[in-house]
Amino acid sequence: MDNAVMKRGIVIKDDWPGYSLDLFTYPEHYHEDIESVYIPHGVIMDRVERLARYVMDDFGDNLTVLCVLKGGYKFCSDLVEFIKVLGRNSNKYLETRVEFIRLKSYLNDQSTEELHIIGSRDLSFLRGKSVLIVEAIVDTGKTMKALLQHVETFEPKMVKVAGLLVKRVPNMAENLTDYVGFEIPNHFVVGYALDYNEYFRDLNHICVISETGKMKYKV
Ligand code: HPA
Ligand code: MG
C-alpha cells in the first residue's frame, strides 16, 4: 500500500460533523455534554485490529509495550488483545510484556507547559528491548518527544510509537508516530478512555465534547 496513506491512518476531514447521538447508545448522563459520535466504538476496534497486524509484522518475537496512562489504557488493552488473537491464529507468538507510565499535561482542554511523569520514572527494564509506546493521542508531539528522550536513555533495542489519534494542530508532530489509527481535526475529543478533567472515560465511542460539557466539568 501507499506509504503516505499508511502513515496517516484514517484521515477525518475538517468538515466531518460526526454521527447524530440518537443513532448510537451512550451513557445517558452525558446526553448534553457531547455534540456527536465522532468515531464509533466498532470502527475504533476495526482499526486497532489492523494496527495490531502492523505491529506483528514489524516486531520479531518479543514486544515490550509501554502504555501511557490514563488515556491509553483502552487502546493498549485492545491492541494487546488483538496481537494475542493474531498470534494464536497465525502460530506466530509475540512474547509481550506490558508496562505502564503515567503522564499528565492537560488541564481543561489546554495543554500545560511541563510534562509530568507520575509514578515510576525508572524504566531500566527497557534496556535491550523492542519497545512500543502506546498513546491515545498525539498533537504537537511535545509530550511524546519528551517521553521518547526519556525512554532512549534506557537504551532499548528499538522504539516505535502507536497513536490511536493524531491531531491536526498548528505545529503538529511529523513522523513521530509509527502506527496511526486516525488523523483528526483540531477538536477536543473524549471517550474510549480519553478524558476531560477525568470525565468521559466511561464513554465507549470517541465523541466531540459540547460547550455545555466543557462548562459543566471545568475545574
Ligand atoms: N481529548 C482528551 N485528551 C487530550 C486531547 C483530546 O482531544 N488532546 C490532548 N489530550
Ligand atoms: Mg487527559
Helix content: 25-40%
Question: What proportion strand?
Answer: 25-35%
Determine the mean pLDDT. 92
Biggest sheet architecture: 7 strands, mixed
* Ligand kinds: hypoxanthine, magnesium ion
Q: In DSSP terms, counting alpha (H) and pi (I) runs of 4 or more, how many helices?
A: 5
Counted beta strands: 10
Q: So what's the overall shape?
A: globular
Task: Name some characteristics of this structure.
alpha/beta, 3-stranded antiparallel β-sheet, 27% helix, globular, binds hypoxanthine, binds magnesium ion
Question: Overview of this structure, please?
Answer:
There is one protein chain. By secondary structure, the protein is of the alpha/beta class. It contains five helices and ten strands. Helix 2 (41-58) crosses helix 3. A hairpin with a 2-residue loop joins strand 4 (95-107) and strand 5 (110-118). A seven-stranded mixed β-sheet has the order 1-8-7-6-3-4-5, sandwiched between helices. The structure holds hypoxanthine and magnesium ion (MG). The site of magnesium ion has 3 residues, from loops.
How would you briefly describe this protein structure?
By secondary structure, the protein is an alpha/beta fold. Helix content is 27%, strand content 32%. It has five helices and ten strands; from the N terminus they run αββαβαβββαββββα.
Secondary structure layout plus pairing:
Blueprint (H helix, E strand, L loop, with lengths): L2 H6 L1 E2 L22 E6 L1 H18 L3 E8 L3 H18 L4 E13 L2 E9 L11 E9 L3 H11 L5 E10 L11 E6 L4 E2 L15 E4 L1 H6 L3
Parallel strand pairs: 1-8, 3-4, 3-6, 6-7, 7-8
Antiparallel strand pairs: 2-10, 4-5, 9-10
The structure holds hypoxanthine (HPA) and magnesium ion.
The site of hypoxanthine has 9 residues, from strand 9.
